[in-house]
C-alpha cells in the first residue's frame, strides 16, 4: 500500500473511532490506585451504570477491564504504584473503553463488591494482595492504614513531583551463553564486555530518580531475540536499549554506531505479529487487536510501529550525540537495519554498537574498566535527555516539567517578584 493510501485508511479509522466515542453516554469519572505495603486497590467510578467485563491475561500478567460505551474524556490516569506496574486506557472501535493494568504476577487479584466477571455497574474495585515474601516493585505511596475507608483520592495534578511514575528502560546485553557474539583478536568476547556495560548502565539508571532499569539478562546465558522483547514488554519498558560490540573483517574499522529498525524490517514483522495471537492481543495504549477486522488490525500495527520507529530515531540521536564524547562515531547519523531484537511494535528500541571489537584499538578500549563505565554513562545521558525532552504521560519527568512551567509563570509575574516570592 502506498503512503497516501495508508494515511487515508488511518484518517478514516480515526474518524470512525472518534465518532463512536462522541455518542458514548458513560464517562470514566475517576480511576484510582491506592497502594499500601502489601495491598493495592484499583477503583473505577463511572458517571452511569454500564455493562462491564474484566479478565486476566498472562505474559505479562494484566487485568483487562472493558467498559461498555464509555469515554475517558479528560480523566488523567494515575501513576502506577504498588502491585500495578503500568496502566493504560484505550478507546475500542466498538465504543468501549479498555483499561489495561499490568500487575505483579505474584499478587492475588480479588474483585471487590462484584460476584461475576460480567456486570452492569457504575463502580468497580479490585484488590491486589502480595503473597508474603514477594516484593512489590515500585510500591511508593503509603496512603492509609489497611482497611480504612473511604479511600483518599489522589489528584495527580497536585501531587509533588516525586509521585510521578518511573520510566522503565529495558537494557539488553547482546548474546550470552553458547553465543559469544563477536570475538576480538586478543580474545575478548562480545557477550562479556556488553554484559558489563549493560550492568553499569542499569546501575546508573537506577540511581536516577524517576528511572528504573530492567536487564533482559544479568548473567552469561542465551536468550532468543523474541524472549528479550517479551521480557521488556513484561516489565512495561518504555525504551529498549540493546548493547553490542560490532565486528567486521577490516581491523581498521572502529567507532560507535546506533541503529533503529528499518521500515523494511518493520513491514516484515507486521505479518508475524498479526499471525501471533498472543502478541497481537493488545498493543501499548490498550488497543486490542483480537476483535478487529484483519485490515484494521494491520493498520493499527503499522501505526504503532511507525510511531515506534519515529520515537526510536529521536532517542537514538541523543545517545549517538553523547557517545561522541567518549568514542569516535563510525557514522554521523543513526543507522537503520532489520535487527530482530528491535522489532517490538510498541516500544521505542535501539541497538548500540559500542565499538568495533574487531578493531585492536577498540578492543583495547572495551577491556578498560573506566572506558566501559564512560560508554555506559554516555548511553545513560542520551537516554535521560530523551525522557527530559519527551516525558511519558504521568512520569516523574512529565510532572517535573509541569512544575518547572508553573515556576516560570510565577517568576514572570511582577507581583510575585515584588512580594519577594522568587
Ligand atoms: Zn552483537
Structural notes for this entry:
- The structure is a single chain.
- It contains 10 helices and 16 strands.
- It has 422 residues and is α/β, with parallel strands linked by helices.
- It is elongated.
- Helix 1 crosses helix 6, helix 2 (190-207) packs across helix 8 and helix 4 (263-275) crosses helix 6 (294-323).
- The chain has helices at 3-22, 190-207, 225-234, 263-275, 277-280, 294-323, 360-366, 369-389, 396-412, 414-418, and strands at 26-35, 39-57, 62-67, 70-71, 84-91, 97-103, 107-112, 118-130, 167-173, 211-215, 239-246, 257-261, 282-283, 287-288, 335-337, 349-356.
- The protein has 2 domains: 29-133, Sandwich (Immunoglobulin-like); 165-402, Zn-dependent exopeptidases (Aminopeptidase, 3-Layer(aba) Sandwich).
- Strand 7 and strand 8 form a beta hairpin.
- The structure holds zinc ion.
- Zinc ion binds at residues 174-175, 181, 190, 244.
Keywords for this entry:
disordered C terminus, 2 domains, Aminopeptidase, 10 helices, alpha/beta, 34% helix, 6-stranded mixed sheet, 422 residues, Immunoglobulin-like
Write the layout of secondary structure elements.
Layout: H1 3-22, E1 26-35, E2 39-57, E3 62-67, E4 70-71, E5 84-91, E6 97-103, E7 107-112, E8 118-130, E9 167-173, H2 190-207, E10 211-215, H3 225-234, E11 239-246, E12 257-261, H4 263-275, H5 277-280, E13 282-283, E14 287-288, H6 294-323, E15 335-337, E16 349-356, H7 360-366, H8 369-389, H9 396-412, H10 414-418
Parallel strand pairs: 1-4, 9-10, 9-11, 11-16, 12-15
Antiparallel strand pairs: 1-2, 2-3, 2-8, 3-6, 5-6, 7-8, 12-16, 13-14
Helix pairs in contact: 1-6, 2-8, 4-6, 6-8
The structure holds zinc ion.
Zinc ion binds at residues 174-175, 181, 190, 244.
Amino acid at each position: 500500500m502506498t503512503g497516501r493510501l495508508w494515511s487515508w485508511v488511518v484518517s478514516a479509522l480515526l474518524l470512525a473511532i472518534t465518532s463512536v466515542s462522541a455518542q458514548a453516554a458513560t464517562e470514566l469519572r475517576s480511576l484510582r490506585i491506592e497502594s499500601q505495603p502489601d495491598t493495592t486497590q484499583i477503583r473505577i467510578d463511572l458517571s452511569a451504570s454500564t455493562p462491564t467485563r474484566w479478565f486476566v491475561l498472562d505474559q505479562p500478567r494484566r487485568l483487562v477491564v472493558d467498559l461498555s460505551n464509555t469515554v475517558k474524556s479528560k480523566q488523567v490516569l494515575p501513576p502506577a504504584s504498588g502491585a500495578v506496574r503500568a496502566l493504560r486506557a484505550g478507546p475500542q472501535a466498538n465504543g468501549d473503553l479498555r483499561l489495561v493494568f499490568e500487575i505483579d504476577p505474584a499478587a492475588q487479584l480479588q474483585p471487590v463488591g462484584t460476584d461475576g466477571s460480567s456486570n452492569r455497574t457504575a463502580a468497580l474495585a479490585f484488590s491486589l494482595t502480595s503473597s508474603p515474601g514477594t516484593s512489590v516493585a515500585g510500591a511508593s505511596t503509603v496512603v492509609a492504614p489497611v482497611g480504612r475507608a473511604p479511600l483518599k483520592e489522589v489528584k495527580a495534578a497536585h501531587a509533588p513531583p516525586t509521585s510521578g511514575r518511573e520510566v522503565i528502560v529495558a537494557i539488553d546485553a547482546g548474546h550470552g551463553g553458547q553465543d559469544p557474539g563477536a570475538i576480538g583478536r586478543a580474545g575478548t568476547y562480545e557477550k562479556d564486555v556488553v554484559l558489563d556495560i549493560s550492568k553499569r548502565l542499569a546501575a546508573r539508571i537506577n540511581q536516577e530518580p524517576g528511572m528504573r532499569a530492567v536487564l533482559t539478562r544479568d548473567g552469561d546465558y542465551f536468550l532468543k531475540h523474541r524472549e528479550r522483547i517479551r521480557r521488556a514488554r513484561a516489565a512495561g519498558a518504555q525504551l529498549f536499549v540493546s548493547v553490542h560490540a560490532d565486528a567486521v573483517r577490516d581491523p581498521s574499522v572502529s567507532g560507535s554506531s546506533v541503529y533503529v529498525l528499518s521500515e523494511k524490517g518493520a513491514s516484515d514483522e507486521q505479518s508475524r505479529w498479526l499471525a501471533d495471537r498472543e502478541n497481537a492481543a493488545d498493543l501499548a495504549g490498550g488497543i486490542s487487536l483480537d476483535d478487529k477486522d484483519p485490515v484494521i488490525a494491520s493498520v493499527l500495527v503499522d501505526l504503532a510501529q511507525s510511531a515506534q520507529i519515529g520515537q526510536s530515531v529521536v532517542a537514538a540521536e541523543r545517545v549517538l550525540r553523547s557517545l561522541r564524547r567518549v568514542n569516535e562515531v563510525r557514522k554521523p547519523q543513526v543507522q537503520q537495519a532489520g535487527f530482530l531484537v528491535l522489532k517490538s511494535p510498541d516500544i521505542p528500541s535501539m541497538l548500540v554498537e559500542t565499538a568495533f571489537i574487531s578493531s585492536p584499538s577498540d578492543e583495547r578500549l572495551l577491556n578498560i574498566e573506566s572506558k566501559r563505565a564512560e560508554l555506559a554513562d554516555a548511553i545513560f545521558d542520551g537516554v535521560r535527555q530523551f525522557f527530559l525532552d519527551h516525558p511519558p504521560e504521568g512520569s516523574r519527568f512529565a510532572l517535573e516539567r509541569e512544575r518547572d512551567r508553573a515556576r516560570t509563570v510565577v517568576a514572570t509575574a511582577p507581583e510575585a517578584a515584588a512580594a519577594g516570592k522568587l
